[in-house]
Amino acid sequence: MLAAERRGRIAEQLQAEARVVVSQLSAQFDVSEETIRRDLERLEKEGLATRTYGGAILAGSDRAAPPYAVRKNTNPEGKMAIARQLAALIRDGDTVMVDESSTAAYAVRAMRPLRDITLITNSLEILQEMGSQESWHIISTGGSLRRDVMALAGPHALRTIASYHVRWAVLSCRGLDGRMGLADSSDEIVQVKRAMMDAADQTVLLADCRKFGRTGFVALGPLELADRLITDREPPEEWKTRLREHGVSLTWGGPENIETIESATI
Q1: Domains of the chain, with CATH numbers?
Q2: What is the 3-state secondary structure (H, E, C) of the chain?
Q3: What is the tens place of the pLDDT at every residue in 29-58?
């Protein structure tokens, strides 16, 4: 296992459990305790962990998203499963807006076999990676750089987004909460996501299993803003019912076992 992948797994455990122990991680990943301490030191520098005697605790709160370098290496298997499901929806000739989320970056990579795509994004990573797709028409939103999420935001980005109409908006969020609905960690980023939703015929929300029941600092909007939600594992029954009642179609599972529940309004 690569060091970046191991740190991503540790970051995922921190998000889920709020605390990790060096000795347990050493046994889990079959590496030395010194290696784990270096991993935790790196995660602390990236703003995700606060080291303690014998381990680390989760740093920050729902107000601050983990650094992008950490998020992109968290739950890669789940994000790849989501990406394959999203790619199956997109067809040559489609117009797509994609946000800055790490899950959306996986989804765009899965769309590489398509030849004729118009892609509009505020993600610096996606713009850089997909520059080799010569048959694609790729448009940057422009705007002010948000280094914490490696994305563009602000009034210029909002004006650019509002000047287009697309078939798909492909987004993720910090969490799905029964009270707040869809939530994220930054006002500026939430404004970009809302603008993308407004510009699209269909909004597809990409959310791995860790997002259910998690809140965020800024409300993005009610669940029904999404037309479809794609996740990596079967959600709890209460969430399946809630999404159906809010008119959100739900798809989950890997490529060998994909299941879909259509919304009550479709």
Answers
A1: 3-60 (1.10.10.10), 76-261 (3.40.50.1360)
A2: CCHHHHHHHHHHHHHHHCEEEHHHHHHHHCCCHHHHHHHHHHHHHCCCEEEECCEEEECCCCCCCCCHHHHCCCCHHHHHHHHHHHHHHCCCCCEEEECCCHHHHHHHHHCCCCCCCEEEECEHHHHHHHHHCCCCEEEECCCEEECCCCEEECHHHHHHHHCCCEEEEEECCCEEECCCEEEECCHHHHHHHHHHHHCEEEEEEECCHHHECCCCCEEEECHHHCCEEEECCCCCHHHHHHHHHCCCEEEECCCCCCEEECCCCC
A3: 999 999 999 999 998 887 778 888 888 887
